[in-house]
């Protein structure tokens, strides 16, 4: 067979042992916090019926859904005349009935509707699974990537919003981030702003422009608003809202004044204030909580709170986001179920942690000790020690077959194994084994029992 | 929108919170044992290039590979004349360049070859990921299911074989299985049997027949051997081998006598004996280790040891298996890399554990305590307690918004939450909260501090 260098499809990745340890560290930390707040894990199939996914992500999104070719004689069902048109779009649904999960939200909505009679509401679920998008791959954008979502459906209590803020605070704090902001806005405030200038229908244009304040500044936003048909008078009216300053309390106060004529706008202010009051009872440990009315992500489906999380330590896009939606399951015929959810951007969090060197050293160490040996006698001598270590739940390896000691040490180094034990003929005679700390290079002669004791103690202090 | 009841594709499954907790329990246990023995986790992409998978699983296997339809105008590349043949097979490779992982072995081989310069050999890796097969779904057979594999490549030491036996013993023992057998055979012994009757070329026919001994008995096997062209004389010669009895040592002794004329056969006996000697140094805790020369699974690629694991407590197919292969990576151009690996059948292990009621009660409990309340005042009163509990790493929830107490208790019951705290007006006045054990129904009045203490102590004793 010609040996073509094997590769993975464009936009997909292998994860090496070192990367897996770090990724598991992130996912395990986030999952443990989800569980602490009462969220329960579910998993849905990689493949969904095409009818479940199609039409849920807009025309652009639909094009990015990976479709599964029907098994067997997939052309059998296709009308020959249709085939001669050579029109891909026309025959797609004839030759493909299933597709790969595009996000976790639509499968979750499908799950809730399908299992509504088994579910206890409010239903607090989390889900950590890969999704696939036929996007053009580029730096930091993959065709296969993990999403990490938590949602609660069937409860309109704002305690849920507050708890998601606490979850972000706790999870990212546990991961070692020291300076990050959780930005909060409310769709009703944005609606209020549109209402006070009598342009409720133009709310999308308005928010798209305001959303760019960070990037293009006030002048840029004004220019864009004018281009989008807003008048100079409109702009004068909303300028103070856009340029809101001061503490969260001060901002809320100014907003209430500006939105005095909009019932919806004031409702939005009330909601945000309630969330702030919950947080006052349960103060955050690390995160800064910021009211940011330029935040407008996901506006087409969010109906209440909108969240976005950014690190202030590294230049990076948002590392999390979410919001409240009033009709998640309506698309599958179950109306009126409100929900709120958040998402962690695991790939970006990984990059932030790499840049800030936040992964614990232990996250890189799976095996704690390697027992090196020169021959069958050394191997035989080492086996009881190996077993004692494992009985104590110490991850341990015995190098198989007598390779050169240099090779065995290289093996330990490459696997970041922190300790080695060398068993040579002297060691077997005296019962004193060479125990080496691979980080410091320190070496001492110890009995097997002393080595076990040392590694057990060592583990206890990590 | 017409509300068609949403569903998942045939042969795929949703996993509910209860199922996920149990599945995680199985996977986490197995992973922790893999790590203890120095195995490191990798993950490969869900999609592989079709060229990586095609031709690796035989014609029948190839048909069961799920193929991904190319994105965009997939027909553009297809010759119109070819299309008019209406021949699905002919155009498959034109409209599909990627496919879903069919097992973990071929992607692992691809990974090893692709990353050979970054890998430290012997490379001990484990991998737990779903695979997809377009098989006809039936009871216990799914189109999407998890595989759970560990392999070591680049070491011919039989210590690896012995350690896999220890891994099975430890992992399945930890999961609570009390009576199970690890069966071991060696391809070289099967070759030896074929050699002593001068039918080396008919080894497949021979082993297919012998493999059925359990099911069809000796008479059945003899009938089948005769049908497959073996002579009465052949059968007389191999009968004692098939009917091997006694302890492993006795069986080995008989085999050595029967295979005295086959160098390969004796080599197989030596290998098995070496593995048994390793196990004598590190005795198994639970498993029975049985030499079983009727074991012939995966014969087309195994070259040395062959494993199979069966529970003796429940009637169920094999719950694990594996073996040594001499040329895993040859298909991708890297010759001469030997390896040995095993697999756990997670779905079957799940069913065994369900039947034997082996899942720990705690595996069903994510949230430890629910704080129930009647109104905003109760909610406000409960928040500091909620926070204290979480600070102590107790999974805790406060029921959002004042629902009826019956509904809150139902919520606790349905989620298997073992404790509840009720905060009513009396409780707020006295500072003594109603703390209820949901299993026993016992109720007592405790301060918030006492509740925290009790739950922390309780966790420590689990």
Low-confidence stretches of chain A: none
Calculate the terminal CA-CA distance of chain A, rounded to whole Å: 50 Å
SS element count, helices of chain A: 18
CATH class division of the largest domain in chain A: Alpha Beta
Task: Estimate the strand proportion of chain A.
Answer: 15-25%
CATH superfamily of the largest domain in chain A: Bira Bifunctional Protein, Domain 2
Query: Which structural category fits the helices and strands of chain A?
Result: alpha+beta
Oligomer type: homodimer
CATH architect. name of the largest domain in chain A: 2-Layer Sandwich
Biggest sheet character of chain A = 8 strands, mixed
Global mean pLDDT of chain A = 93
Protein chains sharing the most extensive interface: A-B, 111 and 111 residues
CATH level 3 topology of the largest domain in chain A:
BirA Bifunctional Protein, domain 2
Shape of chain A: globular
User: Could you give the count of β-strands of chain A?
Assistant: 16
Summed up, the domain count of chain A is 2
Gyration radius of chain A (Cα, Å) is: 29 Å
